[in-house]
Amino acid sequence: xxxxxxxxxxxxxxxxxxxxxxxxxxxxxxxxxxxxxxxxxxxxxxxxxxxxxxxxxxxxxxxxxxxxxxxxxxxxxxxxxxxxxxxxxxxxxxxxxxxxxxxxxxxxxxxxxxxxxxxxxxxxxxxxxxxxxxxxxxxxx
Length: 141
Ligand code: CMP
Description:
The structure is a single chain. This protein is α+β, with helices and mostly antiparallel strands and 141 residues long. It is 38% helix and 20% strand. The protein has a 4-stranded antiparallel beta sheet with strand order 2-3-1-4, sandwiched between helices. The longest helix is centred in the C-terminal third of the chain and has 11 residues, at 122-132. It is globular. Adenosine-3',5'-cyclic-monophosphate binds next to helix 4.
């Protein structure tokens, strides 16, 4: 197993539902450690830049609008195979297809309001972490 870092976002619906603690408990119970965290309201530019890869998609406007609609919890998770592990714990993008017990199955209302984001590959993780965190904000233990 490789120790990896991944970007995790608890989206506005997760923050509003007051399930930050339950989600972090899921990570910590599965060998993922929070090494950085901040609760922020994203600007339009930050959200558009973060999701730039989806710019041509029909849902881009809706996605950005949702991501700036309330505070989000930005986190960096570290642990063995953190990228895949986080995605496994999140469940499928569309909560209707998410496995029993996953975060999206437990808390998400729709594919748009799907509670959490997680990086999908090592290169993306690196870029996404750097989009929101400076190196001196990461506290490896
Ligand atoms: P996320 O993992 O944050 O990455 C891109 C997001 O786009 C995804 O989660 C979904 O929330 C959102 N998304 C993907 N497909 C759709 C869709 N068909 N309609 C609305 N939002 C979508």
